Structures are given as structure tokens and as C-alpha cells.
């Protein structure tokens, strides 16, 4: 397919989605919703590649996405995309990228954040963004486990 390579940055609340990756029911995945909106904007099928996949219910602050599409003003495409996406998927930035740019293959790092609400008191407003654990945390064991993740690792598999 001709056209330009675009780089899109998304943020999303994954609570009501079955994850990032497209499934037959496009409405149930973040990728499906984004592809549907972009396909409407460009008036042709658009397939996007994400820098990674998230599971059902998982959120992302800066998911990098790449796709090829006919050349259009990125600012105008971004404006339309923001109107077409549901309120729990935010299009943060859109720009042209190098032709060989691929969100997953060009990624140089990823950061994962896991939050624990350590209290018996429910966190009504933050419940979607952290796990509640009312018991006593074993901080020593947590530090030992976390130490195994420090450094460079190949998590490809």
C-alpha cells in the first residue's frame, strides 16, 4: 500500500476492552476501535501495529502505534480521530514517521507499572488502576523479586 507511515501515541483505559489485539468483534478491542476510526477517516481499510499488546482490562498511557495511509495533514487526522474514538481511548499525538518505522520493531524500551493499594479500606476511585491487598506486605520478598527485573532483559518470548 502506498502512502505515508504515521506514528500515533494513544492513552486508554482498558477496563471495558478485551485487550489491545484485534478480535472478530472489533468493538471489544482497542486496536479494533482505532482501526475502525482510521478506516473511516481515510476511507479505506487501515491496519495498525502497536508497540506491544495489553491484556483484557489493562491500561496504557503512551502506546505507540504505527500505520500506513494516504498522505493527509496529521493535525487534521488527529482532530477527526479524537472525535471518532470513544472517551476511554485518547489520541495524544500523530506525526509522520520514517517509512521503515514500525511501532513494535522500532521500540527501544517499555515501562510497566503495577500499583498496590495496601489497605482494608476500598479505593473506590482508583480501583481500576491498582490491585487492593489488605494484608501485610512482605517488603523484603518484594525487593528480592524486583531485583531480578533490574537490568536489560529479553522478554520477547
Question: What report would you give on this structure?
Answer:
It is globular, with a radius of gyration of 18 Å. The protein starts with a strand and ends in a 10-residue tail after the last helix. With 157 residues, it is α+β, with helices and mostly antiparallel strands. α1 packs across α2. The longest helix has 13 residues. Helix content is 21%, strand content 22%. It is built from 3 helices and 6 strands. The strands form 2 sheets. The chain has a 4-stranded antiparallel sheet with strand order 2-3-1-4, covered by helices on one side.
- Specify the number of helices: 3
The main β sheet shows up as:
4 strands, antiparallel
First-residue to last-residue Cα separation: 30 Å
Q: Assign an overall shape.
A: globular
Mean pLDDT: 92
**Major beta sheet, strand line-up:** 2-3-1-4
Structural class comes to alpha+beta
Strand composition percent: 15-25%
Report the radius of gyration as a whole number of Å. Answer: 18 Å
Write the element-wise H/E pattern from the N-terminal end onward: EHEEHEEEH
- Uncertain stretches: none
Share of helical residues? 10-25%
Number of strands: 6
Write the layout of secondary structure elements.
Elements: E1 4-12, H1 30-42, E2 49-50, E3 60-69, H2 74-84, E4 89-97, E5 116-117, E6 131-132, H3 139-147
Parallel strand pairs: 5-6
Antiparallel strand pairs: 1-3, 1-4, 2-3
